[in-house]
């Protein structure tokens, strides 16, 4: 167990330094193949989207509380909304990073799979393996498109949130709160759309994970 942990940590360092092929090779030696890594990374990407959904919803709630604020400590209400914006930015970065990792291992897996098909001497088995590869790639591409589509909706939302927070930072009073209520309606609509796209992406991820784990 200690040896495996040491190897895993070493591989993690190699991964961080960009030595992906070395990482995959080392993990394969301990029985952890690219297919396994891919499934785990899809799960991680799905979880990051679920976390981002919650975070953007929380940010929306805090901004709504700020705009509806009457009396009390306005600075404190602003600070809470700003913290939620910062957390949303981090959540978005995590989503993008994990999708990148899914794409990286997918490229390595499909390249290896195609090369190994060429080593199969039986024409029948080679044909079946090629068909399975095409099917898996189609399923994967559908999933990644859905992930990227949901991801693409985050920057506009973050930009709108940032604009509002910067505007309020220098004009924190009841009058300016009222001035951006119209903007808030657009932001609410955009966050609702983002969450809807993330739900679609999460569903596609679950479908892909189930197929990969079942070996279908």
How would you summarize what this structure contains?
88% of the residues lie in helices and 0% in strands. It is mostly helical and 216 residues long. It folds into two domains: 32 residues; 181 residues, Four Helix Bundle (Hemerythrin (Met), subunit A).
Mean pLDDT: 87
| Assembly status | single chain
The portion of residues assigned to helices is over 70%
Classify the secondary structure makeup into a structural class: mainly alpha
CATH secondary-structure class of the largest domain: Mainly Alpha
| SSE pattern | HHHHHHHH
Per the CATH scheme, the topology name of the largest domain is Four Helix Bundle (Hemerythrin (Met), subunit A)
Give the overall shape, derived from the CA principal axes.
Answer: elongated
Put simply, the count of helices is 8
pLDDT below 50 for ≥5 consecutive residues: which ranges? Answer: 1-6
Return Rg in Å: 22 Å
Tell me about the biggest sheet? Answer: none
The CATH architecture assignment of the largest domain turns out to be: Up-down Bundle
How far do the termini sit from each other? 31 Å
Beta-strand residue percentage: under 5%
Number of strands: 0
How many domains make up the 3D coordinates? Answer: 2
What does this structure look like?
- It holds the Pfam family DUF2959.
- Residues 1-22 form the signal peptide.
- 88% of the residues lie in helices and 0% in strands.
- With 216 residues, it is mainly alpha-helical.
- The chain has 2 domains: 1-32; 34-214, Four Helix Bundle (Hemerythrin (Met), subunit A), CATH 1.20.120.
- Helix 4 (74-117) runs antiparallel to helix 6 and helix 5 packs antiparallel against helix 8 (181-214).
- The longest helix is centred in the middle third of the chain and has 44 residues, at 74-117.
- The chain is elongated, with a radius of gyration of 22 Å.
- The two termini are 31 Å apart.
């Amino acid at each position: 167990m200690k040896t495996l942990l040491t190897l895993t940590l070493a591989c993690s360092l190699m991964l961080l330094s960009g030595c992906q092929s070395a990482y995959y090779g080392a993990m394969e030696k301990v029985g952890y193949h690219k297919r396994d890594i891919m499934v785990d990374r899809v799960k991680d990407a799905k979880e990051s989207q679920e976390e981002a959904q919650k975070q953007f919803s929380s940010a929306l709630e805090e901004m709504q509380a700020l705009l509806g604020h009457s009396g009390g400590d306005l600075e404190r209400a602003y600070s809470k909304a700003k913290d939620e914006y910062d957390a949303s930015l981090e959540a978005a970065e995590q989503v993008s990073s994990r999708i990148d990792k899914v794409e990286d291992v997918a490229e390595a897996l499909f390249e290896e799979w195609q090369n190994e098909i060429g080593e199969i001497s039986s024409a029948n088995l080679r044909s079946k393996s090629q068909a399975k590869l095409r099917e898996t790639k189609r399923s994967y591409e559908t999933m990644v498109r859905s992930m990227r589509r949901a991801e693409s909706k985050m920057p506009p939302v973050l930009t709108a949130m940032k604009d509002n927070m910067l505007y309020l930072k220098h004009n924190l009073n009841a009058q300016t709160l009222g001035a951006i209520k119209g903007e808030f309606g657009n932001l609410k609509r955009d966050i609702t759309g983002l969450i809807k796209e993330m739900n679609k992406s999460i569903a596609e991820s679950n479908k892909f994970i189930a197929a990969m784990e079942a070996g279908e």
